[in-house]
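Dear Dr. K.,

Following up on our conversation at the group meeting, I've run the structure prediction for LuxR family transcriptional regulator from Agrococcus pavilionensis RW1. I'm pasting the input sequence below exactly as I used it, so you can double-check it against your construct before we proceed with anything downstream. Let me know if the numbering doesn't match what you have in your notebook.
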Amino acid sequence: MRILICEDSVLLREGIARLLTDAGHEVVAQLPDATALEAAIRASDPDLAILDVRMPPTRTNEGILAAIGIRSRGDRPRVLVLSQYVEERYAADLIASGPAGFGYLLKDRVADVRDFLAAIEQVANGGTVLDPEVVTQLLARRRRDARMERLTPRERQVLALMAEGAANQAIADRLYISAGSVEKHISAVFQKLELDPEDGNRRVLAVLAHLDAPGSDPSRPHDAPGGIR
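The predicted structure tokens came back this morning:
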């Protein structure tokens, strides 16, 4: 199998390359970052690309964004992502970005060489390999998303203004409603998000749920003063 490796850690990159070569695979390219990834794929035509999630220059999401781009264009090369952490939002995008033939493994949880090589073979053959921790966190994210869907449009507006740091009276002024109505909406938000009344950080937790929700945008209540109550 022809394999491309894109990993900024030289020791890990060389170690993976040696492991793959010893297993009979051909490492056609080794890259320290994603800047030349597209050119390397065109030049070497790999069957599989192994990508780190966080690489230079920002060390945030270069690798997984590159993986999403590769998968969105077709089924070659197959993609195996290696990461130190579960990037929930991008992991979900990776899964949805194309057909089967991809994997997402956590580096610290790859404990057996044979399992790693088997995962590579499975991905190359069109299968899907996900670390159990990735699945667990994605399921938890889906549950959070489901809670957000319970909110009414007005409750979402109130929550969005809370995320901006607005106090209750400021929210009332922005939405042209009473402070009492704001308190009722906030109570409904807490209840629908299943936040424990004994938790003194409910406001913070609610804001975090809002910020974590896909497509969460600030509300524009000033555009519709006579809108939803």
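Two things stood out to me. Residues 217-229 have pLDDT under 50 and may be disordered. The chain is about 50% helix and 15% strand.

Best regards,
J.T.
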